[in-house]
Amino acid sequence: MCDNTNTNLSEIKRTYDLININFDAAYQKCDTDAQRKQLVALRDSARDAFWKSIAANLSDNHVLIEKSLNDLKTTNDKIQDAVKSLKDISAFLNMVTQGVTLAAAVVTLAAA
Amino acid sequence: MKRTSSKIAEKIWSKIVMLTILLFVVFMVAACAGINQGSASKLADQGALVAKTVGQSYQSAGDDLARYVEAEYLLSGIKPGYSPPNDEMLKSIDTIEKELHLRQQMFAGLNDVYVSFGALCTYDAKGEVEKSMGNTMQAANNLATMLGGAVSASVGKLFAAVAGDVVGQVQSERIKNASAKIRSLLEGIVFLLEKQNEQAALAGMRDEIAKEKLKVAKYFWENDFALADGILDEEIQSYGLTPKAQALNDASKNPYLLKGVSAVLDWRYKKEVDSQVAAYNATIQSLRTLINEHSKIEAGEPVNLEAIQGYMLTIQQYVNLIAAVKKGK
Predict the structure, then answer these.
(1) A-proximal residues of B, 47-106, CB under 8 Å
(2) The complex's ipTM?
(3) How many domains does chain A divide into?
(4) Per-residue confidence (pLDDT) for residue A27, from 0 to 100
(5) B114 and B71, same structural domain?
(6) How does pLDDT run across B154-177, given as a tens digit for each residue?
(7) Would the CB atoms of B81 and A36 count as touching at under 8 Å?
(8) Which among A27, A53, A59 is the nearest to B80, CB-wise?
(9) In a mutagenesis test of the B interface, which of A14, A54, A62 is the best target, namely the one with the most B β-carbons within 10 Å?
(10) Do residue A54 and residue B79 have CB atoms under 8 angstroms apart?
(11) Mind listing the pLDDT tens digit for each residue in B219-250?
């Protein structure tokens, strides 16, 4: 249980770090205002999910969390690959959206 | 005949009285020999030092968190696309500050416990020990309640041995009894601190704080809004050199110095993160050492408190690092 809950925290932090550390470069790559707004909103959501997960001090985990967590790990791996080139910013933003949604889901499930 | 019986009874009584006195003396000597009051007193001093230093490290983490929020506001102004903290984030930060404060209260209570344990070793302050242990248990229970039902129940079991009066006929017995109670209290505190996510949450939080502080520092440095006097002065003054005022002013315009100072900032970030991890580990180790030394005190064995000094140095280094950053050194 201890290892799993630590994994929850570390994957949520990984999602946020991937967006936050690469934010300036991704922001530069955005072609439209809509893309920039989307990226800003994603960073905000990832930051909220991160702080919420720290505050909640995740104390529980069950099957649903396990599944969301596995999906989050896979998505984080994809974001990590995509961020290296940032060739297709739209695809990157979609991937990050998926990651942030999953991170928020893990926090909500764990805090329930 | 009657007189002879009376004499025999008198002799028997006198032997009974002698035997009682002898037994009392033997009991007192045995009780006093069981506890080394000097060692117990030293342990009390070290315990108070541990409680105070660990409490300071939680205070530092709280201060650092407040500075992080300011850094986020600052970044929202200076960097495009960065949002200021929103209500949801501030609510989470507020909860974390409360959690850190509960830990501080618990260690302030533990400090009181050790001060009164020290008093018990010198002038038998039984009441003070009982009162301070009650207060610390209350603070720890508040923390356990915030951490959730399962944790609260486990802590309750661990603290069962702490409840009740300090018992014992003589001072040494009371010291032994109080030591056992403090040991149970420490076991409960270690359990709370090792609770599932304590380390991961604190490490994650401190890493994020350090990262954002680095981001602000780098922005100021790379955009020629800051001087690197502190870094450059420190580096060359030990060899008797003083940097030229012009050189300090133009440092960020020199591509080599720009890169070099940025690398120093990265290294300082890494040092801060490493120091935080080491401080957490030293906290747990110092509490475990105290538990071990209490067992020795109770068994009448000599104590070894040298390791605690090393752990305290590690925690103090982290506290000093945060304090230095706070003062802008």
Answers:
(1) 79-83, 86, 88-89, 91-93, 95-96, 99
(2) 0.74
(3) 1
(4) 95
(5) yes
(6) 566 656 666 666 666 566 777 888
(7) yes
(8) A27
(9) A54
(10) no
(11) 999 999 999 988 998 889 889 998 888 888 88
Query: How many structural domains does chain B have?
Result: 2
Q: What is the residue type of B135?
A: N
- pLDDT mean over B20-48: 65
Q: Do B164 and B312 have their domain in common?
A: yes
- pTM strictly above 0.95: no
Average pLDDT, integer, range B70-74 = 95
Cβ–Cβ under 8 Å, residues B51 and B111:
yes
Q: Which residues, 6+ apart, have CB-to-CB distance to B242 below 8 Å?
A: B233, B236
B225 and B321 assigned to the same domain = yes
B103 and B135 part of one domain: yes
What range does the domain containing A66 cover?
2-111
**Closest CB from B82, B89, B197 relative to A51:** B89
Q: Are residues B6 and B40 in the same domain?
A: no
| Residues of A with Cβ-Cβ distance to B66 under 8 angstroms | none
**Contact: B197, A47; criterion CB under 8 Å:** no
| Residue B219 near residue B79 (C-beta atoms within 8 A) | yes
Which of these ranges, B108-117, B178-187, B193-202, B303-312, has the smallest mean pLDDT? B193-202
Beta strands (DSSP E) in B211-294 are none
Q: How confident is the model at residue B264 (pLDDT cuts 50, 70, 90)?
A: very high
DSSP B252: G
Mean pLDDT on B10-15:
67
How far is it, in rounded angstroms, from Cα B51 to Cα B158? 19
For B29, the domain range is: 1-34
Count chain A–chain B contacts defined by CB atoms under 8 A. 76
Q: Compute the average pLDDT of residues B188-194.
A: 83
Q: In this structure, are B21 and B163 located in the same domain? A: no
Whether the CB-CB separation of B115 and B44 falls below 8 Å is answered with: yes
Is the CB of B95 less than 8 angstroms away from the CB of A55? yes
Mean pLDDT per 10-residue segment, chain A (112 residues): 58 92 93 94 93 70 59 83 82 84 74 58
| Continuous H helices in A22-86 | 23-29, 33-56, 63-85
* Percent with pLDDT over 90 in chain A: 34
Angle formed by the axes of helices A2-21 and A63-85, nearest 10°: 30
The answer to whether residues A20 and B214 touch, using CB atoms and an 8 Å cutoff, is no
Cβ–Cβ gap A51/B99 under 8 Å? no
Cβ <8 Å between B197 and A48: no
Q: B227 with B292, same domain?
A: yes
Q: In this structure, are B1 and B76 located in the same domain?
A: no
Q: Closest-CA residue in chain B for A53? A: B201
Nearest CA in chain A to B65: A51
Neighbours of B284 (CB within 10 A): 17
